[in-house]
Amino acid sequence: MPSFLNTAFALPLRALTWLGSQGTRGVAAIVFVAAAVPPLGALLRPYLTEAILCLLCISFMRVDLAALYSHLRRPALVATATAWTTIGVPLIVGLIAHATGLTTRAPGLSLALMLQSMASPMMASPALAALMGLDATLVLITLVTSTALVPFTASLFAGLFLGDMLSITPLTLGLKLLGILAASLLAATAIRWIFGAAAIQRHKAPIDGLNIIILFAFAAAIMGDVVSDLLAQPVFTISLAALSFAIYFALLAITTLLFRRIGYERALALGLMVSQRNLGLMLAATAGVLPPTTWLYFAMTQFPIHLAPYMLMPIARRLTARGEASGATAAGSTN
Question: Which N-terminal stretch is annotated as signal sequence (predicted)?
Answer without folding.
Answer: none
